[in-house]
Amino acid sequence: MESPAPITELTESHCPYCALQCAMTISSAGAVSPRMFPTNQGGLCQKGWTSSGLLRSPARLTTPLVRARGMLRPAGWEEALDLVASRLTEIQAQHGRDAVAVFGGGGLTNEKAYLLGKFARVALRTSRIDYNGRFCMSSAASAGLRAFGLDRGLPFPLTDLGEADVVVLVGANPAETMPPFMRHLRRAADGGGLVVVDPRRTLTAESASLHLAPAPGTDLALALGILHSTVADGLLDENYVRRRTTGFADAWRVAAAYWPERVERITGVAAADQRRVADLISTARRAYVLTGRGAEQHATGVDTVSAWINLALAHGLPGNFGSGYGCLTGQGNGQGGREHGQKADQLPGYRSIRDPQARRHMAAVWGVREEELPGPGPSAYELLDALGTPEGPKALLVFGSNPAVSAPRVAHVVDRLSTLDLLVTADLVLSETSALADVVFPVTQWAEEDGTMTNLEGRVLLRRRAVQPPEGVRTDLDVIAGLAHRLGAPGDRFPTDPEAVFAELGAASRGGAADYSGVGYERLKAGEALYWPVRGEGHPGTPRLFTDSFAHPDGRARFTAVDHTGPAEPADDDYPLTATTGRVLEHYQSGAQTRVIEELKAAVGAVFVEVHPDTAARAGLADGELGKVVSRRGEVVARVRCVPSARPDVVFLPFHFPGVQRANLVTNPALDPMSRMPEFKVCAVRLEAVA
Ligand code: SF4
Q1: Closest CA to 105 of 412, 350, 340, 372
Q2: Distances in Å between the alpha carbon of 246 and those of 231, 287, 301, 313?
Q3: Which of 3-17, 88-102, 446-460 has the weakest average pLDDT?
Q4: Which CATH number fits domain 577-689: 3.40.50.1380, 3.40.50.720, 2.40.40.20, 2.30.40.10?
Q5: Vertex 179 angle, CA 335 and 403, to 5°
């Protein structure tokens, strides 16, 4: 292990949680205070304000744990690392390289994501690596690549939104998930131009000038209806479509059949409101279409996002200064986490693992023979689904993720985890996944280590080590390197100093779409605003993409012909309601971090089911009583929260809670054919009283 730099009294850093990465100052005692920064403009949400609780939490792990006779017992670092390395070697010798799988996370720093991908491909030489971002942003990433040839959440600085007259926000609830983001929507909201598309009357929808509440799973049809109005009412930006795009005729052939009155019957959104949105966008000086998980987490997630991108293209928004299309990433490093090689099908620099040139480049950077690099592996759900099967992995290493709560078809995944010969985790606290593990490594967290994150606008941020970590913990980089060396990798191939790892990541990404070769810690320490690609040392970075051309070889964006098919599991007589899932203000992802913070737990300590009072009454339930949400896959026990503004045909479950409260006991694991995203946002359920 290398010695880190000494800690100063006050350190400028960023929040441990979501992709807004709000700026904060952290004292050496761990107290946090907000800091002015373009993205959060001096704001923090409850999670950020209480994040110091994570540093001081009594739930922190401070010693490795090893399972013996069914129980986890404290162990020394050398014992735990030796044990894991020898078991991995045995398992691979017996069952082959792919018998070991790695599962990463979208909250890991760029350095960790990079070293984890390298560890899988160079030290383990397994193709089986994927990460929880597959369940998060993968549909928008696929749709962005298809339309623009390049995917960056927001291809423009967030502050550009502050100048917008119109913002159409589809399936996103930033007023609860990232509250300071709402500051950028004030102008649009004050001028009557904030349109929110969401089946729920969320806090964000409350701020909207126009709230459209389509039936869950019909937002693709809604986008087709607004596109139809755009063309039928003569609002198409023909000049832009001709100069900067291809494929409009094919897309229109489908949209032509979705006149607004027909779309009203499918979605429940009034035809007049569809026309109003088309008109609002076309008359705005500056307009944006933004999508979030509500549009993306469907078995048709890629096509749904494509439908909204088609609408943005029809109005000439992407690549036009002061307008555009973007996706709001959710996890802290949702953007960087998908660029550096922890995805099943990608190598660092956001390159395809199938691309012979990218493979040659990475083999040279890593000092291995090209033919030694594994090919693409299965996607996250498929990887978890195969655990312990005759052909599947026999060992799994989990970093920065808690699939025992967050995985689709979660009861089945927990069964699969229990069949493994070896489950290893690196964790801050004993998460539900770590509680099942054979070996748990206690690791440092955000303010206890240096590392970079790439926020939702593609800007690379340096999070500095601000406090002393508890005695006994090591960094994830130490764990990865410790295992790699025991598996035979030469010492200099797996550095543990974050700056050295970042320098290697820069070389690995050179020439790729997400090129970090010009970033470097020194420029970040100097406060430079660097948005990727940053192509070499003197390069200023790229705050705005697509201003001259898109990233396809012909420089044009692509319309895609997409059609509405509806949810994979529509409501029926047995399961007459539709369940949808999401986040609440107080918690983050599986809740492993936020559920240990007293203030957040006191505010929302358990799952609830949000439902219209009449729907609750039909099930014999009243506000505050315990109900059961039942689907074909399982049931969730939840306290009823009656909300008069809820759609009577929809119930909502937050997904942050463990045990019988896990929302993914009921959700549908049907996968998008392109992104392999599960359909978290729609499944058929019924509501029952608890006997
Ligand atoms: Fe900001 Fe997100 Fe942290 Fe809240 S959770 S303080 S919105 S970065």
Answers
A1: 340
A2: 16, 21, 22, 10
A3: 3-17
A4: 2.40.40.20
A5: 50
Q: Is the CB of 597 under 6 A from ligand 1?
A: no
Reported confidence tier of residue 8, pLDDT bands at 50, 70, 90? confident
- pLDDT at residue 289 in the model: 98
Question: How far does the centroid of ligand 1 lie from the alpha carbon of residue 322, in Å?
Answer: 25
Write the residue with the smallest CA distance to atom 1 of ligand 1. Answer: 22
Q: According to the model, what pLDDT value does residue 331 have?
A: 87
ipTM (interface pTM):
0.99
Q: Assess whether the previous peptide bond of 6 is cis (omega < 30° from 0).
A: no
User: Which helix (H) or strand (E) is 87 found in, with range?
Assistant: helix 77-95
Closest ligand 1 atom, residue 179 Cα = 7
Q: Which amino acid residue places its CA nearest to atom 4 of ligand 1?
A: 45
Task: Tell me: pLDDT of 1 over 80.
Answer: no
Architecture in CATH of 10-55: Single Sheet (2.20)
**What 3-state DSSP class applies to 250?**
helix
Percent of the chain whose predicted confidence (pLDDT) is above 90 = 92
The reported pLDDT for the residue numbered 447 is: 94
Question: Who contacts 273 (Cβ-Cβ below 8 Å, separation ≥6)?
Answer: 210, 212
Q: Is 594 in the pocket of ligand 1 (CB under 6 A)?
A: no
52 lines ligand 1 (CB under 6 A): no
Tens-digit pLDDT profile for residues 257-266: 999 999 999 9
How much distance in Å is there from the Cα of 15 to the middle of ligand 1? 6
What are the sequence ranges of the domains in the chain? 10-55, 65-135+337-504, 138-332, 577-689
Beta bridge partners of 351: 347
* Residue 35 CA to ligand 1 centre (angstroms): 12
Q: Which residues contact 77 (CB under 8 A, 6 or more apart)?
A: 64, 474, 482
Give CB contacts under 8 A, 24+ apart, made by 182-189: 182/207, 183/40, 183/41, 183/43, 184/158, 184/159, 185/161, 186/162, 187/162, 187/163, 188/161, 188/164
22 lines ligand 1 (CB under 6 A): yes
Nearest to 80 by CA among 577, 514, 438: 438
CATH of 65-135+337-504, one of 3.30.470.30, 3.40.50.740, 3.10.450.50, 3.30.1780.10: 3.40.50.740
**Which atom of ligand 1 is least distant from the CA of 181?**
7
List strand residue ranges (DSSP E) for 593-677, in order.
608-611, 626-630, 635-642, 650-654, 668-671
Whole-angstrom CA distances from 61 to 45, 106, 431, 440, 595 are 26, 21, 10, 9, 15
| 245 — pLDDT class (breaks 50, 70, 90) | very high
Hey, which residues does 196 pair with through a beta bridge?
169, 211
Distance between CA 90 and CA 194 in Å, rounded? Answer: 58
CATH class of domain segment(s) 138-332: alpha beta
